[in-house]
Amino acid sequence: MDRKKAQKIYRILQKIYPKATTALIHKDPFQLLVATILSAQCTDVRVNMVTKGLFKKYRDPGDFAQADSKALEDQIKSTGFYKNKAKNIIAASKMIIRQFGGRVPQAMEELVQLPGVARKTANIVLFHGFNKNEGIAVDTHVKRLSGRLHLSGHTYPVKIEKDLMELFPRDEWGLLTNLFIAHGRKVCSARKPSCQECALNKLCPSAKDLYPEVFK
Description:
- The chain has helices spanning 3-16, 29-38, 44-57, 61-65, 69-76, 82-100, 108-111, 119-130, 140-148, 157-167, 173-186, 205-210.
- It contains twelve helices and no strands.
- It is mostly helical.
């Protein structure tokens, strides 16, 4: 797909979802970091239910760094993979205090040093926490839409991200993730995409494959 077609997709989605943003409720970059770590293999709705009480008990990196691992595990258990998530959150908090003066770092190369933080999490924190476009967060929705729209032929997130970064200008990277997530949740679902109601159907090769009689 060429950049001109990619821009058509972006403009259409931007018009449909003008308020697209992260669904994770947070007050600062650190809360966003914790919420994003918890969101792995878990819905944003569930994470927000958990962090509502969690952020009242643990208010900053210092609180999490001193947290009892068992107590933290119990509080985040419903998000899944809770033992590993608790371990990473505590370790990341200690590193933030020890190496970054108690503040979430604002550079990709520093963020990915934190336990539990890979490029996807770092991209989300950088964009929504610091308004920085360093890359594109590739979650399940972004991966699915990128494939269906033939924006990328890869399945590995880092390679998908690279393809998208070449198609879209830097100032659109952060918002692109939000637009794809919004569209993936509302229209382009995993099991049964609503191609006939989709505003992108004329630009989407998959719509033509699924409904050849409609989108010739």
